[in-house]
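Standup, Tuesday
Yesterday: got the pipeline producing structure tokens again.
Today: sanity-check two examples.
Blockers: none.

Example 1:
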Amino acid sequence: MNPSRQTTSTSKTPAGVFTPATTRRRSPGSATSSAAWACVWLVSGWLVLAAGVTSTGAQPPRAVAAVADGLEELYQRYVTGDGVRYAAWQANAGDRRKLGQAAQFYAATRAPADRNESLAWHLNAYNVWVLELIMRVYPVDGPLAADEEFFERRSITVTGRQMSLNELEHGMIRPRFKEPRIHFAVNCAAASCPPLHPQPFAGATLDRTLDRLTRDFVNRHPHGVRSQRGGAVVALSKIFEWYAEDFGGEQALVNYVNQYRDQALAAGAEVTFLDYDWRLNAAR
């Protein structure tokens, strides 16, 4: 799929295959584009008010900072290099409530105007909503075990608009920012997905963070990149197959990966793709 096209997006099937699907995009003149949203958010005992958000402005910086601080506390408590400690999170009613409040923050506010801050905001919104949807049905074996239409169902709200995770990722983030490294930042709660970053994304450090996450995935993730048969064959994550056009096309995949590899893959290697493990990314 060409990410610059605004008439199509990709939708995820239970088999982990993406197929074209119509995307409903909000027009600039729609009702929600001029609406004002208000959100009261309690983080670590701090009351943050994000009010009067309109089409020409975003939530106050103090609200963004407070949400980031609250999320960082939650992530440091429950997100590990081995996965997410869902059971412990679910058992803590206060922390479970804070996650829901974080989701409502992104439901009721607008992204900052600055490009990097906006991309960071959207990535955080996606990851928070995935966590919230999983926690609503936990214990569960994985996102597609929770709901075969986990990514297609319009079960989230962003800036007052009800949408699906696919609409947020493929209808907003990918075409708006045209940044291939986002595929190593959004977390789909599956074992084959790049790990959930244990800190909220921030505009000031976003470029360095995306670089680091991309390097980690193509060098160290068991479902990222594998060199086989003495380097004659390389097996890449399905992410590179599903979103080949984001990385410059199928013929450019090895070149793209080599920008971030510690040991370069052979330029003429045969490219195959790894099966996708949809089991929950729970800490073992």
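Example 2:
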Amino acid sequence: MNVLTSDINYQLATLYASKVAGVKSEYVELGNEFYLGDTDNRLVFPNVDHYAEKAMEWSSRIKRIPPFSTTKIAALGSESDVESQPGRRRLWLNRLLETINGNTDIEAITLHPYFKAKFAANENQACPIIAGIPIPEADVRSAFANIIRDSRELVNDEIAQIANTGRETWITEFNLFDTKHAVHGTWFHGLFTSSMLLTYLEGSNVTKILPHTMSGDGIFSGIYSNGTGLNFGLNAGGFLGPGYCTSPIPTTDAWELTALGNAVALITTAANGASEVRNVDFPTAEHYRWTLP
């Protein structure tokens, strides 16, 4: 729901309209990433207390209307250990949970984790998708060790903190986000995000995991929306900087799965209808063991 530039009455009307249209309004997320320092975010929510108060007010209004009394409502949280970010973001989750303590209308907290590849080398100057250049094995090992470690820290810190309040965690966005290495859209990207997803399932209160985004180009999407999904120079407005991946080939087919889409689809197909997840160990199988840095 738009809690930034709209009002509660207008947003309630949208819920009614969706219900009339036959759309189930079972879950509501109150806003998006207001912990970022955008001007509008700061004007409406100078600090997290202002957001928390509005979230409690809106959730109460929604829950008191019979058609939406069973709708689950989530307030937005944030990772608290992003050292490069200002205090607004780092302190957001702690203060939010303190302010809404005792509130029963807000049943979940959302998180949007994004991580870099963290390769051993600082920059990959080529575009592996176009040039067919393999990613060095040392970089792959380093990247996967780091993403599993970072994702598990999220599970043991923020996700556990949310669980201690009796609330669900909804990961309504997650992905690789790396503007220094041209690896978006590759199989590395698909396996990287799959590692994130599988690790987040270790959180007992994680009930929703949605990669960002459904359709578009190969940078973030699970489904290509056109024939130039890997042409980052054309589609992404310089996501990787000038000169990266500007060739029109290789082409993609609209509505085919990206590397991310193919990798995540295997997990979602296996998990469809499941009520719980458990670790499975194959002690006699040959496998790699990577030492976490």
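Quick observation on example 2: Residues 137-163 form the longest helix (27 residues). The radius of gyration is 21 Å.
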